[in-house]
Amino acid sequence: MAATVVSLATSLTAAVVPSSLSSSSAFVFTKLWSTPCLRITFSVSPFSYSRGGGKLMAHSLARATLGLTQPANIDAPKIAFSAKEIDVAEWKGDILAVGVTEKDMTKDDSKRFENSLLKKLDAKLGGHLSEASSEEDFTGKPGQSLVLRLPGLGSKRISLIGLGQSATNTYAFRNCGEAIAAVAKTAQACNVGIVLASTGSTSNESKLNTASAIASGTVLGTYEDNRYKSDSKKPVLKSVDILGFGTGPELEKKLKYAEDVSSAVIFGKELVNSPANVLTPAVLAEEATKIASMYSDVLSATILNAEQCKELKMGSYLGVAAASANPPHFIHLCYKPPSGPIKAKLALVGKGLTFDSGGYNIKTGPGCFIELMKFDMGGSAAVLGAAKAIGQVKPPGVEVHFIVAACENMISGTGMRPGDIVTASNGKTIEVNNTDAEGRLTLADALVYACNQGAEKIIDLATLTGACVVALGPSIAVFRTLFTTSKLMSSSVSKTLSCWLIKLGVFTPSDELANEVFAAAEASGEKLWRMPMEESYWESMKSGVADMVNTGGRQGGAITAALFLKQFVDEKVQWMHIDIAGPVWNEKKRTATGFGIQTLVEWVQQHSS
């Protein structure tokens, strides 16, 4: 029987936990969390299915949950990617997918393609490709796809995938991969070949990034979270050939990187999708320890319970957790490279409210989204997803701390009340004028903890404010920063920004850090927008009886939230807050997005030697 050694920072120095838990042993394991400090050196054996060599998500936890719900044991999509240099007309498989821009679809006077690859394929198909594209009004716009079953090629079908006017960034090519996955799913295709109609004078680096983005999009587009459905279909797609991008170890390494990061995004999605009656703070902590177990050569885990957090004077965090029957778990994973010097110390902090009722300021009325408040731990999902990817990629020269103050915001006689004053671990006092502004209270102590680890740069991610969603819409995350005053922004500009920005709002006093994260976001295909940190707004956050209140007025709510968090970061530390309240959830698909993980991993990679 496989065993795990758990070292404790109390008189209990070791315990042996079996790799496969019965219902009684699961009870013993949960009791371990009641010790003041739990440091996992060899973490608990994984419970469920394989994700790049290990198992994540507690699919077979042998414990009773509210509603008796247990997620099904479903494998993630496993797609074999290969890079090949062959004549695409001779490629044999189910679907040959051709990515085309609107320019590629240009036709001559005889209504034949001008693009050389499309002209060649059309000739093999007797002109039917150009005819069908005209009849179906396929012009190469993003989101368009055309699938034809015609004799003349090595493949059974040919598909045209629209890329828009031009395709020059990661976002466009990842969308292309997702569109290809959708086409393959509809056609029940087992194998697909992917080629772009035009690569032009593309550099080798650009080809590598394009192939990686397409591969990532294909994996994420194939994946469906069916763990909580009584009947689910397994994905059919098994292999994808990347054609026309060259071959060799460099490309293979890039495709492997895409696979590792995509598996981390899927893990993050599953965390957010899991309901609060399954994913409690304790289970979130277990998932974190399993990541450390899978990559124990580079990751260690420390889990602190309420008593240990009390010793660290985390009154702000514990005030939020006080009402819940599910105790808080403070999660700290630490990545250290297997060898070589450490040149940078970074920290990623994620909001970890596994459910947010609003507390005594309970969420009520239309638009309160209380039924979706399982996603209030989306920041922690991004951080733990990044930890999984970093554990797989193992970047040298950088130390990374992954920190989550996990708890629930509930209502009971022991809970925090409006008007209460809590004291954070840096000694600052906070008058709680709204119990539904709880995320910033947990982040306050988490940020102080991160600074105490010696981090030189910190990024926190949180589903923090509805104000950010109102400002930027559901597709944009925001940078909070010393940028310009929002008063200078006209309403027309504001409306324009709200239309095209994609899901992430960012705030930071550091131009250097802003530039770094923007570059990482562009490389990963996730869109950010830098928001102002207007210091004059702090006036609304002052309290008559404490150092500050936890909410200001309705106007500028996202900005005042960032200004609040700034009070808990050392002045010598470069810090950024990313508000993912909009992009954490895809309302149309009713599922999590995994937003932020790819940017975080790319940012850590930038700091790697």
TrEMBL record:
Top-level division of the source organism's lineage: Eukaryota
Signal peptide: 1-15
Any one GO biological process: proteolysis
GO molecular function: manganese ion binding; metalloaminopeptidase activity
A Pfam entry, by short name: Peptidase_M17
Keywords of this entry: Aminopeptidase, Hydrolase, Protease, Signal
Any one annotated GO CC term: cytoplasm
Cytosol aminopeptidase domain span: 434-441
Annotated catalysed reactions: Release of N-terminal proline from a peptide; Release of an N-terminal amino acid, Xaa-|-Yaa-, in which Xaa is preferably Leu, but may be other amino acids including Pro although not Arg or Lys, and Yaa may be Pro. Amino acid amides and methyl esters are also readily hydrolyzed, but rates on arylamides are exceedingly low
InterPro entries, per the entry: Leucine_aapep/pepB, Peptidase_M17_C, Peptidase_M17_leu_NH2_pept, Peptidase_M17_N
Sequence similarity: Belongs to the peptidase M17 family.
SUBUNIT field: Homohexamer (dimer of homotrimers).
Protein name, as recorded: Cytosol aminopeptidase domain-containing protein
Taxonomic lineage from the root: Eukaryota, Viridiplantae, Streptophyta, Embryophyta, Tracheophyta
